[in-house]
Each structure stands twice: as structure tokens, then as C-alpha cells.
Amino acid sequence: MGSLFSRQSAPLLGVDISSSSVKLVELGRDKGGALVLECCAIEQLERGWITDGNIEKFDEVAEALRRVVKKSGTKTKNVALALPSSAVITKRITLPGGMSEQELEVQVESQANQYIPFSLDEVSLDFCVVGPSKSAPGDVDVLIAASRKEKVQDRQGLAEAAGLKPVVVDIESHAARLAAGRLIEGLPNRGADAVVALFEVGAMTTSMQVIRNDDVLYERDQAFGGAQLTQLIVRQYGFSQEEAEGKKRNGDLPEDYQSAVLRPFVDSLSQEISRALQFFFTSTPYNRVDHIMLAGGSAPLPGLTESVIQNTGFACSVINPFDGMEVGGGVRLKKMVREAPSYLTSCGLAMRRFLQ
């Protein structure tokens, strides 16, 4: 079976490859067992190198991955990567408890045929036991994950081309949830029974997951993200795509940028978030959330949190996945704090090191 859920405790890099950048995180533990951020780095990708999770420019992305490893200063070679949720079929099934690993494997393979629209020869298939079944005492819930082999091989090939050793291939939404789980525990009552809407605002897509007690109540992706802000800057000021992206990052924009471009964009982004919540309310028994968490490159935009609170009436914050961690000497603190919301998925991947 594939390695969608392999376990590792040797040093491990979490590498998140999105449509706009490659993000790397390495975590360790101190003597007391507290998490330590050893290093983190981001390398931007040019538009079109990765589209809808597909690697269109393999050599360019592999080179960017080499650069981000060099920039981070890490010596670690083992890496955890992730596939977008759209490239993975997941299914939760219930099986009798007390089976050996081999017996489980046989059962999973025989059941997987029902859920996977490809021949099993074409897929990387893996499973993990989630825990005792709530609905059937004595049984266990098992999560099956399957992806086309070429999708997994593309990611593995990228790592190998950059001189790394792929040991884990996870799912982006699972990695984001793992990193967010630490932060949910920081909510009142350690986040017990809290309904949390997690939004990751990427360049092209905003991903939403609604979580309660580690269960996913609802998931939805929207084609809306930070790239639209870049487009608005291009239209307003006549810059090229690259100029606009650079100026957006450095904050080097004309005086009227806040009022003419940024504020309208922030308003429409918060309306998209509000709309996504309405979809959740109309398709589930829920009619409120306890907290909205914002992550991704556009999450720290000035005024976004306030606009979301105003539009939805719910508590909202931008999250830093490294909150409460010690920070290693090699990390540039100011830069890390500024970019922290972008590292949610890569942080979750790096946390796989400690999942025994």
C-alpha cells in the first residue's frame, strides 16, 4: 500500500507546494517535550507552474524546492508532502475490531473497489484506524485514502529531484487540520464542542473546513483568493503581473491603494467567507460557529478580521501555527511572524514527525 499515512519520528521537513509558493517547516522538541520551530522558508512560484494541483513546469518547481531547502539552512533530507484534497478520494468505513494489520489490509482492499472509480492497479491506496466506532461497539472506524499513482509519483519525483527523500504523502486539508488542532485547544474550554470554521485563503482558492471535536462537519473550496488582489492592482495601476505581485508583497503601492483597491477587495473576500458559512448553515443542522480562523497568504490583510466579524457576527482571528512554540536561533522572527498564516499546511506536515 502507498504511504499516505506513514509514521516517522526521525527529523522531517514539512513541504507544502501550492499554486503560488513552496513553503518549508521543520519542527523539533526541546528536553521538556515542547515543540520548537527549527526553520521555515518560503519560495515564490511563477504563475502557471502549478495549476489545479498539477505540476506543469516540473524542472522549475524542483529548482524552487532546492532553493527553499537551501534558504532554510536545514540538513534534513526526509520530507512529508501533501496532495490537494481534489486529488484524493477518502472514505470512512467501519470494520470489526481486533483484526491484524494484514487482515485489515485485505478488508480495505476488498471494500476500496466500491468507492474508487479506477482500477486498484492505478492507485496508491492507504488506510489508518481512526479509533473505536461510535455507532457500532466493538468495531473500528477506518479511513481509506486513494490517489492516482501518477499524482503521488509527481510529488515524490519533485522531492527526489531536489535531493530529498519523500517518506510521507499526506492530504493538504488533513495537514492543515492537524496544525489548527493545537490552536483550537487554545480556545475556551480547550475547544471542546466548539464549532470552528477554518479558512485558508490561497492565491487561487479559499478552502473552508468546519471542525468540531476533530470531526469535519463540512468542507468547501471556493475559486477566490489573493491572486485577485494582484489582478486588481494590475488593472488599477497598469503594472505587469510580476511588478504587481512584488509591490503587493513589499507594500510599495500608490497612496490611494488602501481606499481604491485594498478595501473593496477585503470587503468582497469577507463576503465570500460569509457566503461560504451560509452554505454550511443551509446544508447542515448548524446555524452558527463559535470561531472563524483565517490562514493563508491573504489572511493578514489589514481590516480583514474586522470585516469578517462585521459581516458574520462571529469571533474571528488570523492564526499563527507556531503560537506557543519555542523559536530556534536560525529563524528570522519578524519575517516569520509576518508570514506565519501561510505556513499552516506545511506546519501540519512537519508535525507528522511526532505522530506515533
UniProtKB/TrEMBL annotation:
<feature type="domain" description="SHS2">
    <location>
        <begin position="12"/>
        <end position="180"/>
    </location>
</feature>
<dbReference type="InterPro" id="IPR043129">
    <property type="entry name" value="ATPase_NBD"/>
</dbReference>
<protein>
    <submittedName>
        <fullName>Type IV pilus assembly protein PilM</fullName>
    </submittedName>
</protein>
<dbReference type="InterPro" id="IPR005883">
    <property type="entry name" value="PilM"/>
</dbReference>
<dbReference type="InterPro" id="IPR003494">
    <property type="entry name" value="SHS2_FtsA"/>
</dbReference>
<dbReference type="GO" id="GO:0051301">
    <property type="term" value="P:cell division"/>
</dbReference>
<dbReference type="InterPro" id="IPR050696">
    <property type="entry name" value="FtsA/MreB"/>
</dbReference>
<dbReference type="Pfam" id="PF11104">
    <property type="entry name" value="PilM_2"/>
</dbReference>
